[in-house]
């Protein structure tokens, strides 16, 4: 995997290059970067600093984006199919119409994020914080929501999603029982 600096990336992007498939740009500072339409397929973006950036229509399929800082970033129609976003900070990020199928968002901060019409089928949202997120028409079919915080989420449709007794629902409560009929032991 080729290592590239933030300065090199921005320079090459400004020159018209969009394909950065399989590169290593981990731990780089790309504050407010405009990288619309970039291809980071299979790239290493772990611990990258990308707040207030524009990654709309970017391809981050199978990218390693663990512990990245994407606060207030634009990821409109981004392809994050199978991406690893464990513990990423996506606070108030715009993920409208993003493809997050099979993405690993375990422990991610999605507070206030806009996930309108996002495809989250089969995504792992275990212990993710979605407090106040907008999930209007988001597809959560087969998404894992074990231990997720859904407090004050807007317009969420949980049909087809997997939750458990540790999931915090939009009203702030944990369930008394699961859809299977099993009772939750709230005393432990």
Automatic annotation (TrEMBL):
Q: What is this protein called?
A: Pentapeptide repeat-containing protein
Instruction: Specify the domain of life of the species encoding this protein.
Output: Bacteria
Q: Where is the signal peptide?
A: none
Gene3D superfamilies in the cross-refs? E3 ubiquitin-protein ligase SopA
